[in-house]
């Protein structure tokens, strides 16, 4: 089985950060693509980013909406263990008390969602830009209690990889796992991170940097 590569670091050093972030790239992409398409477009300072790197630029070979096979389960398990190792190293370097955002785009968003379902809630939030659960609703899959973890989930009616039905199924699964969930579906949006999605991630990072929990600000 392929061994995943060295992650890319971006932003401030973990020890100097107000917020830690692990952001996972999509299929055929790289950490450098995530800097160009998402992370480099953020305005919040004081964030230490760890950008994982998949062997062959792919976290698992199947489409997210395919039924789970033994091969996909093995690939998914290896990728989740790799991300868990990076999360542990980042928190050790930065301080376990600091808030952490875990997320990604496309296949990276799907992997992040599966990470939360397999490992449970943490101090921080999750962002899934164009993501869904991996596998079919009838497959045996982990679904731990997320205990109010703030989660931002997005999709598009025109996305070629994540259909609206998979977006909706992910929303239901997150709801059943007690996530504090915010969903946005962007009609006509191509397979990309839009300005509004990047702005939403920016706002979540800003909340955490200021000591607030995302989605809980009260309008004046």
- SS-derived structural category: alpha/beta
The number of distinct β-strands equals 7
Spans with pLDDT under 50 lasting ≥5 residues?
none
Strand order of the largest sheet: 1-3-2-4-5-6-7
CATH class: Alpha Beta
Order of helices and strands: EEHEHEHEEHEH
Helix fraction bin? 25-40%
The CATH topology: Rossmann fold
Radius of gyration: 16 Å
Mean pLDDT: 96
What is the end-to-end distance? 54 Å
SSE inventory with pairings:
Blueprint lengths: L4 E7 L7 E6 L6 H7 L9 E7 L16 H25 L5 E6 L1 H13 L4 E6 L20 E6 L8 H13 L3 E6 L9 H15 L11
Parallel strand pairs: 2-3, 2-4, 4-5, 5-6, 6-7
Antiparallel strand pairs: 1-3
Task: Describe the protein.
With 220 residues, the protein is α/β, with parallel strands linked by helices. The chain has one domain: Rossmann fold (3-Layer(aba) Sandwich). The chain is 33% helix and 20% strand. It has five helices and seven strands; from the N terminus they run ββαβαβαββαβα. It has a seven-stranded mixed beta sheet, sandwiched between helices.
């Amino acid at each position: 089985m392929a061994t995943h590569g060295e992650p890319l670091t971006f932003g401030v050093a973990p020890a100097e950060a107000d917020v830690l972030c692990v952001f996972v790239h999509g299929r055929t992409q790289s950490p450098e693509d995530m800097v160009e398409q998402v992370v480099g477009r953020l305005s919040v300072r004081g964030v230490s980013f760890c950008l994982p790197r998949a062997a062959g630029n792919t976290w698992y070979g199947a489409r997210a909406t395919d039924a789970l096979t033994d091969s996909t389960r093995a690939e998914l398990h290896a990728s989740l263990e790799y991300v868990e190792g990076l999360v542990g190293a980042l928190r050790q370097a930065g301080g376990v008390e600091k808030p952490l955002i875990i997320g990604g785009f496309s296949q990276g968003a799907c992997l992040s969602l599966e990470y939360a379902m397999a490992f449970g809630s943490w101090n921080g939030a999750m962002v899934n830009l164009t993501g869904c659960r991996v596998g079919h609703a009838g497959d045996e899959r982990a679904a731990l209690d997320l205990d109010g973890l703030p989660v931002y989930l997005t999709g598009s009616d025109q996305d070629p990889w994540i259909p609206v039905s998979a977006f909706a199924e992910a929303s239901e699964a997150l709801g059943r796992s007690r996530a504090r969930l915010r969903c946005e579906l962007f009609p006509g949006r191509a397979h990309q991170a839009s300005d509004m999605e990047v702005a939403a991630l920016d706002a979540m990072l800003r909340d955490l940097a200021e000591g607030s929990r995302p989605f809980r600000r009260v309008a004046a």
